[in-house]
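Look over both lines before class:
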Amino acid sequence: MVLMIDKVLGNPLVGLSPWIVYSIVEGEGRLEVSAGLALAVAFVILLLNWSRGSKPKALEFADVAFFSILMVVVALASDSTHHWLELWGGEVANIVLAVFVVGSILVGHPFTLAYAKEDAPEEEWSDPHFIRANYIISGVWAVAFLIEAASGFYGDAVLDNSNNIWTGWIIQTLPLIAAAQFTIWWPSRLEALGKQAGGEAVRVPPIEELYVQMTPWIIVIGVLVLTVGGGPGWLGVAFIIVGSLLTRLFAARIKADEAKQAPELARAPSV
């Protein structure tokens, strides 16, 4: 159980979870609830880290600081400020997150590095490939947050509809899914490439393993279009068909890659 908690807390998604909770819950009439839930999640994460003797990450301190300030502002805000925060709170949160992530990159300590060190032996911490991987992963998250902010801004400012299925949900969610899957896939690929360069016979995860984790969400988009709206019925059906075909295609390519590499791995001497 302790090892499971350590594994969970060593994932950058944990530090981002208060923001994810806030973005899912926030909306008209839900500002206090969304900020309060996000702050509660942030405090729980901080306390869990302290209780297991681990130093909380910079992102986790930022979580508590941002949502504490937001709760104070909400409590003291005038009606007009309260309305403004209900309308633009999601965009503000995404921009703050993007600034935090970009800032961590600019100061030479990408925010995912603190999490990656929990899974990597200390001798790897100064490895240029290890550090470069975290610059790239942090950069992917920064782009995801900026896409979310731009999507929310377009929905609120141009469409005047914060609940638009595309700008309010689909385009808001897909960058998070893509960044989360990339965070899992990219380090495993780099690790395999490093071992391969050192003479070990290991299978290198192909990019199809990243794609196959995301294509099912194309099917989900199709289901949402059919059930919630946001487009004609044929568009929802098209998303479902395309998502199904791509998922099958990438799964087949992964199997072919495994079959191709299996004889080479079997012949390789054990290290």
Summary: Residues 2-205 form one domain.
